[in-house]
Design goal:
It is a single chain. By secondary structure, this protein is of the alpha+beta class. The protein contains 22 helices and 32 strands. A hairpin with a 2-residue loop joins strand 12 and strand 13. The protein is globular. InterPro entries: Topo_IA, Topo_IA_2, Topo_IA_AS, Topo_IA_cen, Topo_IA_cen_sub1, Topo_IA_cen_sub2, Topo_IA_cen_sub3, Topo_IA_core_domain.
Length: 880
Amino acid sequence: MSTLVIVESPTKARTIRNYLPKDYRVEASMGHVRDLPQSASEIPATVKGEAWAQLGVNVDADFEPVYVVPKDKKKVVTQLKEALKDADELILATDEDREGESISWHLYQILKPKVPTKRMVFHEITQEAIKKALKNCRNIDEQLVRAQETRRILDRLVGYTLSPLLWKKIAWGLSAGRVQSVAVRLLVNKERQRRAFREGTYWDLKAYLEQNKGPFTAQLITLAGRKVATGSDFDPSTGQIAAGRNVVLLSEADAQALQERLIGKVWNVSEVDERPVTRKPAPPFTTSTLQQESNRKLRLSARDTMRIAQNLYEQGYITYMRTDSVHLSEQAIAAARSCVEQLYGKQYLSPQPRQYTTKSKGAQEAHEAIRPAGSTFRTPQETGLSGRELALYDLIWKRTVACQMADSRQTQITVQLQVEDALFRASGKRIDFPGYLRAYVEGSDDPDAALEDQEIILPNLKVGDHPDCKNIEAVGHETQPPARYTEATLVKTLESEGIGRPSTYASIIGTIIDKGYAQLVNNALIPTFTAFAVTDLLEKHFPDIVDPSFTSKMEQTLDDIADGEAEWLPYLRDFYLGDKGLETLVKERESQIDATKARTVELENLAAKVRIGKYGPYIEVENGDEVVTASIPKDLTPADLDPKQVEVILRQKTVGPDQLGRHPETGEPIYVKIGAYGPYVQLGDKSDENPKPKQASLPKGVTPENITLETAVGLLSLPRTLGTHPTTGGKIQASLGRFGPYVVHDQGKEGKDYRSLKASDDVLTITLERALELISEPKKTRGSTSSKSKAALRELGTHPEDDAPINIYDGPYGPYIKHGKTNVGIPEGTSVEDVTLATALELLSAKASTSKTTRKTTKTTATKSKSTAKSSTATKKKGA
């Protein structure tokens, strides 16, 4: 008897073959094999003349979808049908979520199997999981399929009804979406807040103090009993102190006068407060939290995170990566606790196994949270992974292990110091026991926030002490506009608002960027002027579509359909065909929407009109009897477009570019111009003889207002040849590129070796010696980290096996012993002075033996898997 197993991808097929009996054949469907038509050419001839054909859904016949096999999948379907002819049984083993269920259903509909058919699901690709899944096959869940189909139809109705309207009224190629349009509105609203923001300025004092030779700093908090103003006391829309705040607003003069008054006065510790704090580890990853942490820590986009996680899952390294669940199986908890005990010691284990529960209602639960696969967890070093796959696995491994570790015990210390009528505060933090922080620290959306594992040490202070004041500094501050969304904070907001599903966030954010609704700059999502125009139109004419609460209720209804608590057909009829349904509204509003107004973006405090044109956004102003237009540079954001910027852009169009001066050697004029990609300098005029005058973009920190003729001449001289490499004879040059200034070593046939300049280097003045120094440094790859060298606390001696030094260093969680690449913590209760070379060798040996045992187990398992695979392959060849 032979069995055909169908999964989605070739990688998954290759991995799963290792764990199935020899008479099982595994093939890949290459994802979806059937879907609604994506273009007019895919619409079947039988329905092409119907009014609803473009939708791909017959709204007049109970929203019956028209499914087609895309051209690129026809060959796959043919191959699967051929494979099925030789099978006595069919097992559909696609992913365990709604989409996977839908793929299995479509495969069943297309293949029309005449042999027994089963549905097999598993949340990790390990031998144990596959064997268990084979014994517990089930039928296709029709309710899950119906829920997914309803979701697909609803998304099609929204997208294919509103997008053509945007093409007619704003610009060709735009798109609207059930979740996408709400996400774009979130970005636009944040940018509106930034436009409305008014900067406020305030001053305070920072004191540099010392007690028993222990330095510390303190901040002014009250003056004559009244709180000193901070950024939170300002109204962001006026830049003034918010109404009702009884605070002292210090000007620069006030701060300096107070500084002079307090110098030389006696400081008195008036209060010392020590408060114990316990911090618990974060739960294991869900799809959403993985995307957030990966973006914060690894700077990976949601799309890249899901692509890499998919690869890790299909290769058998992690469990299924689309899940809203934080639950861990008993097996996973045991594996995580084993890792903690082996790597960190029993004292770092949580007293009881930690189990987490999912709080969100209607979560699309898979069996578990995202974790390392298997009943024992491979450490990142044991996987053989590299690059971004290793970085993501490392993140998942650490988070899972940390969730079974002991709490972190810390002491928050607050000291108040009185000097005349001014009260200062010094804050410190002592980590009494790092607990889970040994393994994992959760990232923060605030880049300026101190991480949990950082101690802030204060000297031993008590009430009545009089520390010495070494210096007082007057410090000026400006309030900051609301931070733009990053992918991490957008995902967090979408999930908290109940908008969409985490498994779709990656594709949604990708679409927003691909369609030109947002630019990703320094990890921030900046909405474009087109995003403003589209959001304005939808807010005015289809407010429900971009209303987060409406979209959230829609998501809940879709979940209710999946649970059998709501009927899908009445809901679709009401949403699309009802009196206030989408089709009705579009027919009503289309004639009411003026295309010229729809293409115009209304911005506060801006007399000029911003319009969306065929080639992008542009400014339009009336100049006497004529209308002047000028393109808006791509790097100019809606929040930054002010009357001054408009004046500069229009002056270039009406008067011509500003002439900075003339080149000292050629005598040609040098202009400062603003183009689609921002400001740049140009040498000479464009003419028939000189159709492409030399141009150079302005580097970071240089603006059209502060650029000098000397700098412009230097930029136009790039690339600068600095000399030749003393070893290879290759040319060394300095220049400016897309990612900033750099030096490059031309190695001939071996290619070019690039290094970015440091912040202290200047591309116009860097010397050959400095360039050679940079080129000699190891090249950093994406995601790599570099550690600063530090002095050892103690040098114990050398290792008898390799003569390598064994030293003790101070780490964020206390002192540790280092030998080569091996680090081992000093046992709690043992001081640095008590550790001898013999003790260190014993601890290093214990660590090495633990690592070897784990590696040996993994290697044995891998060897068995390989031999099983070879045996299976040999049997197939023999029987062929």
